[in-house]
């Protein structure tokens, strides 16, 4: 084995491994050195540098001959090569391709990188590899040991003999008493067992030290229209006070790749990406988060049509996903669309814009996903996240600076992030399982930071401007004004296009429209009349009379297509 930094005399360990470390990494390293623990849990915000800390500690333990082997366990296959590359940059050779069927660890390496799924499939093999040398086991995102009862049992069985174990997580977490994650200390709390980190470094501290960049959340509202399983046409505005079922349906409709909401927000995000690129980050990229693979591929068509740039799409069933992420990381491509593939641990420092176009809404997934765009490269950067203006997401955005405890629920089976995703998807109320999205319009609502909505024209403090703006380019007020102005311009351009299309089509639309089209439109008008009546205290009959006064013509049963369209537009203006 070639001699690298790990072969240096132990007397110069601190001077060697501490060089270039951030303050929190040196402090955590000192705490570990003082304690000499077998188990050590570090909770550090995404983007803080947990990988660098872990590899530095591994170097120290190798130099002092406390250990002679390193095993890293990660959630996904792509992270194996990422860890191996980071280790190689520090002179540590870790094998990212060692399979369960390959037998012993190669003698020309210090160890290997594997996944929780691989450990679960053959724990005794990994136990033997651990016992054959004094081993440090690094458990990256340790909460994944709770993704299935078998995973936790396998991790415990495989790595019980380890000389040292270092566990890493981006967020604190809770578990039920019967679902303890191996090698983690807990304390009782009112709603379960709370993990106890040996060292914690939160988003607030990382932001203050410019380790991560500030995040601006651009919230977009708009009216969604859908037909439920009973054939009723309903509409609601994103973020509108109402029932959870109504908000969820409006949210799901907005995320429909065939609607205008997605296209509008993609256009706004791409414009923002251009701003970032022109302000000193020419290789900045944008990440779009999709709920499932089918939707991700549909979003790719929207991005290409709206921006003129073909995005990179990474989904779990594509064996090339890892290579695609790697290529995107080192390219200047503008867009990448992912389903749970770029949400945790993946380090693409050039990501500066994110479009939240998925239905996941748990604090854990939110923190990990936003962590993809907070990694600071230089001090004059700001990340922008575009998201639906719905209460669950706005609440998560407002709590970005708070130290939160996140629940890790146990799911049966699954691989990588699939088990976690099963509890994160937007849930539907009874009766919403079958519904047909009819359309959604997008409208810029506000910038969100610290639970406060920042809109154009509001007086802001100097602290607000320094913290939220794109330094050297825009203040927060200017950012909000810019997004709002562009939003209006895009909406006007879209409206002009629709008018032109309608003028061309109106002459023939009535004879082209089928009876099913007319019936669907009548139902939509009827549903909107009911909503207007409910909001204004009218009876449905009174509401129908008022609609016919506003848009003259026969009753809905005999009204023409043009009259029905005009009545629908009138009602949307009242209830939108």
Please explain how this structure is put together.
This protein folds into three domains: 5-206, 3-Layer(aba) Sandwich (Rossmann fold), CATH 3.40.50.10810; 213-494, Rossmann fold; 513-575, no CATH class. The chain is an alpha/beta fold. The N and C termini lie far apart (69 Å). The radius of gyration is 27 Å and the shape is elongated. The chain contains 20 helices and 22 strands. Residues 1-16, 401-433, 463-474 and 505-511 have low confidence and may be disordered. The strands form four sheets. Strands 15-16-14-17-18-11-21-22 form an eight-stranded mixed β-sheet, sandwiched between helices. The protein has a seven-stranded parallel β-sheet with strand order 3-4-2-5-6-1-10. Strands 8-9-7-19 form a four-stranded mixed β-sheet, with no helix packed on it. Helix 12 (321-329) links the parallel strand 15 and strand 16. The longest helix is centred in the last third of the chain and has 37 residues, at 476-512.
> What would you call the structural class?
alpha/beta
Helix content: 40-55%
Strand residue percentage: 15-25%
Through-space gap between termini? 69 Å
User: How is the largest sheet built, in terms of strand order?
Assistant: 15-16-14-17-18-11-21-22
Examine the coordinates and then state which fold CATH places here, giving the name of the CATH topology of the largest domain: Rossmann fold
Radius of gyration, whole Å:
27 Å
Unreliable spans = 1-16, 401-433, 463-474, 505-511
Average per-residue pLDDT, rounded, comes to 77
- The CATH superfamily of the largest domain turns out to be P-loop containing nucleotide triphosphate hydrolases
Biggest sheet architecture: 8 strands, mixed
CATH 2nd-level architecture of the largest domain: 3-Layer(aba) Sandwich
Indicate how many domains the architecture comprises: 3
Task: Specify the overall morphology.
Answer: elongated
């Amino acid at each position: 084995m070639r001699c690298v930094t790990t072969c240096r005399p132990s007397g110069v360990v601190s001077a060697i491994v501490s060089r270039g470390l951030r303050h929190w990494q040196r402090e955590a390293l000192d705490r570990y050195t003082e304690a000499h623990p077998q188990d050590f849990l570090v909770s550090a915000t995404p983007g803080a540098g947990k990988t660098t800390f872990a590899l530095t500690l591994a170097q120290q333990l190798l130099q002092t001959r406390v250990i002679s082997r390193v095993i890293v366990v990660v959630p996904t296959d792509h992270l194996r090569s990422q860890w191996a590359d980071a280790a190689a940059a520090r002179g540590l050779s870790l094998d990212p391709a060692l399979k369960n069927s390959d037998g012993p660890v190669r003698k020309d390496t210090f160890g290997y990188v594997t996944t929780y799924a691989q450990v679960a499939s053959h724990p005794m093999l990994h136990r033997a590899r651990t016992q054959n040398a004094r081993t440090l086991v690094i458990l990256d995102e340790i909460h994944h040991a709770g993704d299935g009862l078998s995973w936790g049992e396998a991790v415990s069985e495989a790595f019980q003999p380890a000389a040292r174990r270092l566990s890493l997580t981006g967020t604190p977490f809770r578990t039920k008493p019967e679902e303890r994650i191996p090698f983690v200390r807990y304390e009782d709390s009112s709603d379960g067992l709370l993990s106890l980190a040996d060292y914690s470094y939160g988003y607030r501290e990382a932001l203050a030290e410019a380790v991560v960049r500030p995040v601006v959340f651009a919230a977009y509202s708009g009216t969604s229209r859908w037909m439920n399983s009973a054939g009723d046409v309903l509409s609601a505005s994103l973020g509108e006070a109402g029932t959870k079922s109504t908000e969820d349906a409006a949210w799901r409709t907005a995320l429909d790749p065939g609607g205008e909401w997605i296209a509008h927000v993609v256009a706004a995000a791409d414009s923002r990406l251009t701003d970032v690129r022109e302000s000193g980050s020419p290789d900045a990229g944008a990440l779009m988060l999709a709920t499932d693979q089918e939707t991700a591929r549909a979003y790719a068509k929207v991005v290409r049509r709206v921006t003129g740039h073909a995005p990179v799409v990474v989904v779990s069933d594509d064996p090339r996903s890892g290579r695609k992420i790697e290529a995107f990381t080192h390219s200047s491509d503008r867009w990448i669309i992912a389903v749970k593939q770029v949400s945790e641990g993946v380090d693409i420092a050039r990501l500066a814009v994110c479009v939240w176009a998925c239905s996941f809404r748990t604090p854990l997934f939110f923190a990990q996903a936003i962590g993809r765009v907070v990694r600071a490269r230089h001090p004059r950067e700001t990340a922008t996240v575009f998201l639906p203006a719905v209460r669950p997401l706005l609440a998560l955005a407002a709590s970005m600076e708070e130290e939160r405890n996140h629940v890790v629920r146990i799911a049966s089976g699954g691989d990588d992030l699939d088990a976690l995703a099963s509890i994160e998807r937007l849930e539907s109320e009874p009766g919403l399982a079958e519904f047909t999205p009819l359309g959604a319009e997008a409208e810029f609502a506000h910038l969100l930071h610290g639970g406060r909505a920042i809109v154009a024209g509001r007086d802001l403090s100097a602290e607000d401007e320094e913290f939220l703006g794109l330094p050297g380019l825009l203040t927060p007020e200017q950012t909000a004004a810019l997004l709002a102005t562009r939003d209006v311009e895009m909406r006007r351009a879209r409206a002009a296009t629709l008018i032109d299309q309608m003028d061309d089509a109106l002459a023939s639309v009535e004879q082209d429209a089928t009876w099913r089209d007319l019936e669907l439109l009548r139902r939509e008008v009827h549903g909107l009349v009911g909503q207007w009546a409910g909001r204004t205290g009218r009876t449905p009959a009174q509401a129908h009379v008022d609609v016919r006064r506003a848009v003259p013509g026969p009753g809905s049963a005999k009204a023409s297509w043009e009259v029905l369209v005009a009545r629908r537009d009138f009602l949307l203006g009242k209830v939108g």
